[in-house]
Amino acid sequence: MIKKIDIQSDEFQTQLELTKQFTDKVCEEHGFFYNPEEDVNESIQLGLTRNKMIYGQRFCPCFMVVGETPSQREKEDNRLCPCTPALTKEIPEKGHCHCGIFCTKEHVDSLIQKDEVEQEVEHSQGLSKEDCENLLKKEQVSAAEVEALLEARELKLVNFLLVDTREWMEWVGARIKGTDFLVPTTSFYQALEQVEGKKDTPIVVYCHSGSRSAYCQKIMLDMGFKSVANLDYGIVTFRGELLSGE
């Protein structure tokens, strides 16, 4: 059963405002700065709010939450924002947390100077059927490669399934055009029944930043899916066409 949360509801909007106050406080207490790309901050705040409503805690939205009950989740190594890896390793060493919302001033300045992240531009033109098949055998594929594969699929050079492992509210907000199935991590095994009979078809999975989908990728391979590639760094790096709405 896919959990559908109405982000326009009064309850969600109230929780979202509390989440924004929470992330403001994290920045203030630790001397962090928000990512200059506002879309990144908004997406993470929405995800933190979603997890607060589902689990009662602001688990990191870029990772799959493990555990069916509060006691089970407490025993697992779930990331609770602001998470220990971000505070002790990611931000000190890389200048930003895994999700990208909390940054050092130096990292923010570097992003602004580079006019955001440089994007690789590739197209399916010139790719052979063999090229496409080899891409689908990779463990990780880039956003440009996914865009090329989607174009190649339109030309009937290759067949594969594109699966979104984010939540329904993220799917409604924006998803990659050509996505075939939504398999949210909060109802993963039930939703996965949609593709249970397609284990021999190559699959590409994606999420916001590549972490949740990587977790799902491992599970699917363990379950006997023949070929599952992960969109490294997630939908935030995708520069192709997006769709919104149900």
List its salient traits.
2 domains; 10 helices; alpha/beta; single chain; five-stranded parallel sheet; Oxidized Rhodanese, domain 1; globular; two-stranded antiparallel sheet; 10% strand; Ferredoxin Thioredoxin Reductase; 246 residues
Tell me what the structure shows.
The model is unreliable at 116-124 (pLDDT under 50). The strands form three sheets. The chain has a five-stranded parallel β-sheet with strand order 3-8-7-4-6. The protein has a two-stranded antiparallel sheet with strand order 1-2. A two-stranded antiparallel sheet has the order 5-9. The protein has 246 residues and is of the alpha/beta class. It has two domains: 10-113, Ferredoxin thioredoxin reductase catalytic beta subunit (Ferredoxin Thioredoxin Reductase, Alpha-Beta Complex); 129-243, 3-Layer(aba) Sandwich (Oxidized Rhodanese, domain 1). α10 links the parallel β7 and β8 (228-231). It has helices at residues 10-30, 38-55, 70-75, 84-94, 105-113, 129-136, 143-154, 168-173, 188-191, 211-222; strands at residues 33-34, 102-103, 140-141, 161-164, 175-176, 181-182, 203-206, 228-231, 242-243. α1 (10-30) crosses α2 (38-55).
